[in-house]
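ok so I'm stuck.
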Amino acid sequence: MATKQRQNGRLWLAVAVLLLAACSFIAPKTVGGMAKQSYYFDANLKFSVSYPADWIRVSTATAAAPDTVAWAPKEHVLALGGPGTLFRVVSRPPARWRDDAAAMRAAFAAAHAEAVLDKNQPAALPAGPAHSFLAHSPKRTFLVYMVTTSERDYLLEFSAKPKSFEKLVPLFRDIAATFSPLR
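replied:
not stuck anymore, here's the structure
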């Protein structure tokens, strides 16, 4: 009798452990299309953002570009011809652009002289009000968000080869939704 009770007790314990294990499973944290993500925090440029975990930082603020950080999918960086998909943040003091969307747009145009820019559109981001526009060049299509705060102005540039751009727009929007200026 005691043996049978011990077996039943072990059975119930095994069932409880299995139920607990099944209930404690937590799916990977997701943001839109990003099943696994990495988090970037920059106290100097005053922003944070999440991006897909399989992307790597391809540039950081340097003397030549003290206000820029960029990421790309790891497999694109390793491929010949450089990144096919790129996410870049340019962060500048507001005195540089003075909360002026036209000046921010002009800075983007100067950096991408071959691109034709569409008109600005209002954009709602969790970081606050923004403007966005599309730009097109023979080799790249861009989705650009312009975000201004009292401390910094930001250009969020997402780009890809024209043939793959449309399918990446939801991911680009998901990344933009995680962008947060630091105060």
